[in-house]
Amino acid sequence: MNWPQFWQYTAANALLGIVPAVAGLAISIPVGIACVRWRWLYGPVLSATSIIYAIPSLALFVVLIAYTGLSNLTVIIPLTLFSLCVLVPNVVDGLRSVPEPVRQAATAMGFGTIRRLVQVELPLAVPIVIAGLRVAVVSSISLASVSGLIGVASLGYFFIDGLQRNFNEEIYAAIVAVIVLALACDLILVLARWLLTPWSRKPGGRATANAEGAQLLQEQSA
Amino acid sequence: MSFFSFAWNWLQSSSQWHGAGGIPIRVLQHLGYTGLSLLVAALIALPAGVLIGHFGRGGFLVVNLANAWRAIPTLGLLILMVSLLGFSVLAWLIPLVVLAIPPILVNAYEGVAAVDRDLKDAARGMGMTDWQVLRKVEIPVALPLIMLGLRTGAIFVVATATIAAEIGLGGLGRYIIDGLATNNYGEVAGGAALVVVLALLIQFAFVGLRRLVVPTPLRAMARADN
Amino acid sequence: MMRTGYLPVKRGVLAGVAVSAALTLAACGSSSSSASGSSSNPLAPTASTGTVVVGSANFPENELLATIYSMALQGAGVNVIDKFNIGAREVYYPEIEKGAITVIPEYNGALLATSVDPKSTAATTAEVNAALTAKLPASLEILNSSSAQDKDSVTVTQAFAKAHHLTSISQLGPIAKTMVIGGPPEFKTRIDGLVGLKDHYGLTFKSFSPLDESGPISLAALVDGKVQAADIFTTTPQLITDHLVALADPKFNFAAQNVTPLVYKKHVSSTVANTLNEISAKLTTVGLLAMDKAVILDHAPYNTVAAGWLKAVGIKS
């Protein structure tokens, strides 16, 4: 096993998985806000995401080669699109989950629309948005390994090389690395949610689980 | 846009529709991979999800396990199965089943767990046993979500069944892999377009199925909840 | 009280956007990393003056050869970026033509037949190289060929050869239509693939089965009888261990296929050319086969085997 190469490709895979999720988050927040503000927008957006999600990732990579050459962008752009499919519904649901009394109280206290959005609605949407971000990051890191089929460095290289040389150790190691990498990012996000929502740190694992479950559910109902 | 014109040109060429490598055969192969994987995944995930939701235990585990499950790289798992089991049906079936289980499991669990307490109490008050409550109340009420889980799983599998071509099998992935190998952009675009069309057809099929299977009052109720 | 609780969120969002912007910039600039760690700086641009990009096709032997090129060039003091496992020639040829790749280990006959001049009838090394020199686009040239050859072939199992008394492709005429032939997906359309077998030998097979680049899928299909013949590269170690027979090719459907460096002229200095020519001079079929065995059957890492060979033949790495 060429371990230095293995760690290099693990880092490459991490990059190829995390950047799309973060970029997807950055794009999904304004898009989600727009979909809540203008309700007629949400339907078409949902239709678009369900079409994009049905496109095989390898096909998207290949289509992009014509525009980006063979670089990391060839992989990052499609994965960002997939992340958007997961994150936009979560941003919308998160914003919609803010109870009406809270919104009204904020307005009564003199909060303008933008200030209310940034200081009340978005923070309250954090649990649902982070639930979506968890799915986006885990899926991106896992899907990024398909880049091995077009020669862009990731842990997927070891799937292909391991198959070609009957070298099972490489295959096992790469699968484990992808899973561990994805779960590490997942845990970091769980921690982030815990840190960012001090008001929900109360005992009662089931309540949190149901909230999480509902969120994971809602991203799939897109 | 060039993607669409390439795909359209390739799809229009009549040679694509005939012969052993023709579109109809590849679509049937693809549906075969998808159908079998979905069936096996449903056989595993539906009972598990329904029972966990019914007994109300392990929900926390289900939800977090499903997310961890998503981390498993399907291509890697496929290649691992090939190197361990050779080129058998299990080699592609196992990765696709693994892929489809999380959405089916989570939705079935959530569907049953969300059934109104009062409904269940009323049913028990009418003299129904535990199993009858499950069969006559919980599952019907959970049906919209159960169908949603199956639909989501189906879309995941349709898009990913393209990897079967990576190990020399058929299906619509053949166009993507072969097109990539011969730098035939039209073939890759056409193959991808066919997968998307198939996925959309499956979505419509599920919407129709939902109309058939879910009783009207429950449909309205589910819509109101959502 | 409401404000202090939500500040971390705002800061968090800003931080996240900043991080993603930085990462995206880094991602745009970086290219695939190499086994020998030559391109560890993610912000380095691809192929600036003096930097050589070494590419490889998507099968182990080619990655091995590219590793040898890469290590020798680094030993000669050249800045190298590796872009291995790109794909079949149909995918990487456009890349080297426009200079995104500088060097790739090629097989002269296959290069000629596939991407340069499909109508060529050149068969020997000299003929093929002359045709290449004449017909390659202005941006590309080939350096010196080595004596090492790795040819495509039509290979059958020993049992099949015995049963049908086969030693050469020309004997397949009567039974071809009962046979399924397999190979990498591009074999179907390549000029020295199914097309050439029909033109040179008049063979029409029952069907074609797309497999992989002479790897485990092709070998398993052949050994299990899913295909009766397959395109197996002649330096594949399993030819011996799996008891396979590469049929003779008297009509030169597969022309000479010497390992030859293909280069993008503008980015290649005399140091680079000399180093690559030195490698060609020292590489033999026997040596290549031994290295393939080490890498494919013994699972030795590519850079270890490459370093070992370079040391044995006296090239600095």
Q: What's this entry about, in short?
A:
Chain A is mainly α. Helix content of chain A is 81%, strand content 0%. With 317 residues, chain C is of the alpha/beta class.
Care to describe what's here?
Chain A is an all-alpha fold. Chain A has helices spanning 3-37, 42-53, 57-68, 72-96, 100-108, 113-144, 156-164, 168-196, 205-220. Chain B is an all-alpha fold. Chain C is α/β, with parallel strands linked by helices. In chain C, the strands form four sheets. In chain C, strands 3-10-4 form a three-stranded antiparallel sheet, with helices on both faces. Chain C is globular, with a radius of gyration of 23 Å. The relative contact order of chain C is 0.16. Classes of the chains: A mainly alpha (222), B mainly alpha (226), C alpha/beta (317). Chains A and C meet through helix 1, helix 4, helix 6, helix 7 and helix 8 of A and helix 1 and helix 12 of C.
Q: Which descriptors would you attach to this protein?
A:
heterotrimer, A: 222 residues, mainly alpha, 81% helix, elongated, disordered C terminus, C: 317 residues, alpha/beta, three-stranded antiparallel beta sheet, three-stranded parallel beta sheet, 12 helices, disordered N terminus
CA-to-CA gap between the ends of chain C?
65 Å
- What is the CA-atom radius of gyration of chain A, in angstroms? 20 Å
Mean pLDDT of chain A: 86
Number of DSSP E strands of chain C:
10
Major pleated sheet of chain A: none
Question: What is the CA–CA distance across the termini of chain A?
Answer: 43 Å
- Strand segment tally of chain A: 0
Structural class of chain A: mainly alpha
How much is the radius of gyration of chain C in Å?
Answer: 23 Å
β-sheet strand percentage of chain C: 5-15%
Secondary-structure blueprint:
The complex is a heterotrimer of chains A (222), B (226) and C (317).
Chain A: H1 3-37, H2 42-53, H3 57-68, H4 72-96, H5 100-108, H6 113-144, H7 156-164, H8 168-196, H9 205-220
Chain B: H1 2-12, H2 23-55, H3 59-69, H4 74-85, H5 89-113, H6 117-125, H7 130-160, H8 173-181, H9 185-213, H10 216-225
Helix pairs in contact in B: 1-9, 2-5, 2-7, 3-5, 4-5, 5-7, 6-7, 7-9, 8-9
Chain C: H1 2-29, E1 51-55, H2 60-75, E2 79-83, H3 89-97, E3 103-107, H4 108-116, H5 125-135, E4 140-142, E5 155-157, H6 158-164, E6 180-183, H7 194-201, E7 207-210, H8 216-224, E8 229-230, H9 238-241, E9 244-246, E10 259-264, H10 270-282, H11 285-297, H12 302-313
Parallel strand pairs in C: 1-2, 6-7, 6-8
Antiparallel strand pairs in C: 3-10, 4-10, 5-9
Helix pairs in contact in C: 2-10, 2-12, 4-5, 11-12
